[in-house]
Predict the 3D structure of the following.
Amino acid sequence: MALIVQKYGGTSVGSLARIQTVAQKIKTFKEGGAQLVVSVSAMSGETSRMIKLAKEIQDVPSLREMDVLLTTGEQVTIALLSMALQQLGCDAISYTGAQVQIITDSKHGKARIKSIDGHRIRSRLDEGKVVVVAGFQGIDEFGHITTLGRGGSDTTAVALAAALNADECQIYTDVDGVYTTDPNIEPKARKMRSVSYEEMLEMASLGSKVLQIRSVEFASKYQVPLRVLSSMIDKPIGTLITREENIMEQAIISGITHNKDEAKLSLIGVPDKPGIAYKILSPISEANIEVDMIVQSVSAREGLTNFAFTVHRNDFNKAQAILQSTCKKLSAIAVQSDDKVVKVSLVGIGMRSHAGIATQMFGALDKENINIQMIATSEIKISVVIDEKYLELAVRSLHNAFGLDKE
Ligand code: ADP
Ligand code: ASP
Ligand code: MG
């Protein structure tokens, strides 16, 4: 009998009616003759609501207590979904992450799964039950509750699929698959039938939140066939994320992503000497702030250079304060900061063998008079940082320029 892991995201379980609809789908699926493990998110908006509550009590909420708080969202949905299944006459049982030994490291708020004990789940499956597991959560070796970062239920589902050696992991959400770009920004976005792990990984890490990055890493590492589909329609087909070899026709550009979480900081007029990048970035990394893009310009004036980088907007104020003190230490001229920037990226395996993609991208942005502030490239992606007010315009004009709306 096939073993399938399904995950239902926040919107899909956002109301009691939706939970009941999902329960009906699960029941029908099970009657088709498969063993089912289902992982769910908190009802939509719940996690964000609880983060706000915590911040009203404590300026910088304790990370440990935050995890205790946030995991309650998923605990609500596993119980309600199991009840809805039982009500339909479908035998089901719910488990928290700790109960099925989803062991993680101890990094509260962004823990990584180290192992999952599949024994208990397998026994329940053998009894004919649907096993409902709370997404987004685990427990560390000392018994502390942990969470996997925003969007982490995707990762729970894929990790469960890998641990149980499932035949497929299905991620049910509010869109019917992975599109050439966020369909909420470009209505002409087209659904992809399949996409490689490598491209999906790039898309996820460049801001496409349809799948959490770590879920794609897991799927790729353990070769879990992963499908993204809609929980809102009947008989969805969705998008299969699979190995590059399994994809029939490979487009040059697969997708366009955007990331609104960027903020840019620049140090103007730093002495152009060895060790400058190190001196600027090491206090930033010591403060546990991740740096994304980096640009050092050619000396504008004799012996002086400008150094710019981007960080997550949540870290903007902290990074700005650190850079101010670095500015004094290095006798630089000034700090410039801008948290109204976004990153827009083109992703495609076909770029490896095609020259001129970057030029075409810059040309399309130039045509719309969009100024490029930073550029980063890798084998299969090109990213630019631009003013956030041009986000939609940039995404749509690139989508059009690369003919992504056409089959
Ligand atoms: P869930 O709550 O089910 O986990 P998410 O909101 O995390 O759902 O992810 C689904 C959303 O991802 C979509 O509503 C869509 O706006 C967004 N998204 C961003 N990029 C893409 C893309 N390339 N294809 C499909 N959806 C995308
Ligand atoms: N509930 C968590 C969040 O909102 C995890 C998830 O939905 O995947 O980030
Ligand atoms: Mg999500």
